[in-house]
Amino acid sequence: MTRASLTVAILAGGAATRLQGRDKGLEPLLGRPLVEWVLEAVATAQAARTLIVANRNHQAYSAFAPVVADDLAGFRGPLAGVAAALAAAATPWLMTVPVDCPRSPADLAARLYTAAQENPADAVVAHDGARRQPLFAIYRRELTSSAAAAAAQGWGVQHWQTTIGARELDFADRRAQFRNLNTPEEFAAYAAEHAR
Quick one: which of 81, 117, 124, 167 is 20 to 30 A from 159 by CA? Predict the structure, then answer.
């Protein structure tokens, strides 16, 4: 995989209802906004460009990376973010990760891309050994119109992935790295475990 092959999109467009509506990606974790941790984790992908898909606080997020908004108004779910990121990507491939996972696997992009090439597929999604992790996925840019149409119909990202024949890739060896943070208690527990 060359740098010119891949765009990375951090999906930060959720309503964060379990954080009392506070923007999850800007929530502090060990003294830094969560989005900084995610950017650090995806830096290993060596992508041509990294985007943040957000529906609010665009100015705050733009301090970290270029920001793209969902094409659909309101909080329409992750598939709307995937569709917006695909439309903004100028590379053949797009990888998505959610903003609530501070330490995704360092080899995520390489493994997803290799799997898509070795057994050709338009989309490959991570599976942690227990369940699909639908927001950790790689897509061909040609899926842009399909994602947009499905998002407009209110589909969930996992249903759309199944419909387009996305392949699952086993990441059971990295299961702990898919841990996500949704509540104040989860932020506090993670911080306590990782404080130096």
Answer: 117
